[in-house]
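Write out structure tokens for DUF1656 domain-containing protein.
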Amino acid sequence: MRGEFDLYGVFVPTLALWMVAAFLLSVPVRRLLAATGFYRLVWHRPLFDLALYVLLLGGVIALVHRILS
């Protein structure tokens, strides 16, 4: 797997692309959790959002690795 992605002559790490994809996935998930009232059960919302983002990032990386392997 390549370590960087060429974007008009600028080399961008693939991890940065995966991080953007995970963030774009986390936005609707957080809105859904807020709409259902799930955050009332959470002690520290920013910490929970960070943990959710890390889990989604790991899922995106695992999915891309599985697809490309």
